[in-house]
Specification:
The chain is mostly helical. Helix content is 61%, strand content 0%. It is built from six helices and no strands. Helix 2 packs antiparallel against helix 3, helix 3 packs across helix 4 and helix 4 packs across helix 5. The protein is elongated. It starts with a helix and ends in a 43-residue tail after the last helix. 4% of the residues are buried.
Length: 144
Amino acid sequence: MISREALRDFFDSRPARLSLFILGILLMVLTPFVAILPGPGGIFVFGAGLALTLRNSDWAKRRYVHFKRWQPRAGRWADWGLRRGSHLRREARRKADERADAPPPHEVERMDDPLPSTGFDVAPVDPTPGELAPATPPGSEPKR
């Protein structure tokens, strides 16, 4: 039985990495021929080829980073599909930045006015403390 260290050393060797890189390129080239068959097989074949290529080639990694900078939305989908850890970190950072840049809820203008052209005023959702008038007790009305 082969130990994990021996197997890891084998896949880290230059000939094994080169053969896996070539297999990944071959799978990506075969994707259009598999895609004509019924079912979503082409997506999985391309994903496996891309994963093998990115895992075993520094050149492919640099090209992939260049592609992600050029097409960030497509890069997000590719990272999600490849289950990359960097995708999770990047998405968490993007969501935190969006929350930090968003205005507080009471300052957001209402967009759900049912009849904007009729001229009816819609009450604000959450009045700010400055918009609220202090209530006067019933017996303390000013004298005229």
